[in-house]
Amino acid sequence: MIEKVDFQFEGGPHGVLLIHGLTGTPAEMRLLGKGLHRAGFTVHGMQLAGHCGDDNDLLATDWKDWYASVQAAADALEQRCSRVFVAGLSMGALLALLLAADRPNRVHGVGVLGATFRYDGWSIPRLGRLSFLLPLLKRLGIGRHRSFMEQPPYGLRDERIRATVSAAMLGGDSAAAGLPGNPWHALADMYTLAARTRRRLPDVVAPCFIAHATEDDVASLKSNARLVERRVSGPVEMLPLDDSYHMITIDRQRRLLHARLGAFFARHAGSEPLPLASVA
């Protein structure tokens, strides 16, 4: 059963839509949402279709459903805010970029956080690096009940946070920490989404703030963040993070990320950010 765990923080006239990653949860965006709210923004940490339940809930959806839920959340935020920004983590970054490509006059800035077009980080096993073949397997009906299980360090350099998140994830609390594995067919849809978003990158004219761990264990900076930097048409600001792994919104350098992204959005909203209060 899917638990509703999205969050809303009412703030100023400018809104930020936050999008979590594949098999993830809005909880991975909550600290960032609090930081942006303290900087004066209205924030919605949305919940992707099919997420925060079990494997069957996720497999009942595909990338089009995930994107439709992003579009609906953006529409709702536009009703309350004069300008809308969007930021996503991992696969959420791809959905954010696709929304910006489709809505060049309605998305005023994009936070591209740990973008994942390819699973080629240092912790990904050799078999996992062949996951780009999964769309073919899905079309052939192969592997519906197979998953790639998450492996240490679970995207987290901070050992204390890693212990907390892994305990919740492996304990079955998908609403708090996401699923412990990536179903093959869901990954197949992620790769289909990645291919579509890659083709649309030149259509992204909104300013892009790209943050990525230099030692990302899931998705390398070179194949993912640099791809976005090269291909989008809008202005780019890059923040490499040298003391974090993939889950940069909650890892060791989260406060730096929150402050820099808030300042970036504030500049493009035509306002100065409020001082950021300390966020855990």
UniProtKB/TrEMBL annotation:
<dbReference type="InterPro" id="IPR029058">
    <property type="entry name" value="AB_hydrolase_fold"/>
</dbReference>
<dbReference type="Pfam" id="PF12146">
    <property type="entry name" value="Hydrolase_4"/>
</dbReference>
<protein>
    <submittedName>
        <fullName>Alpha/beta hydrolase</fullName>
        <ecNumber>3.1.1.1</ecNumber>
    </submittedName>
</protein>
<feature type="active site" description="Charge relay system">
    <location>
        <position position="246"/>
    </location>
</feature>
<feature type="domain" description="Serine aminopeptidase S33">
    <location>
        <begin position="16"/>
        <end position="252"/>
    </location>
</feature>
<dbReference type="InterPro" id="IPR012354">
    <property type="entry name" value="Esterase_lipase"/>
</dbReference>
<dbReference type="InterPro" id="IPR051044">
    <property type="entry name" value="MAG_DAG_Lipase"/>
</dbReference>
<feature type="active site" description="Nucleophile">
    <location>
        <position position="90"/>
    </location>
</feature>
<feature type="active site" description="Charge relay system">
    <location>
        <position position="216"/>
    </location>
</feature>
<dbReference type="GO" id="GO:0106435">
    <property type="term" value="F:carboxylesterase activity"/>
</dbReference>
<dbReference type="InterPro" id="IPR022742">
    <property type="entry name" value="Hydrolase_4"/>
</dbReference>
<keyword id="KW-0378">Hydrolase</keyword>
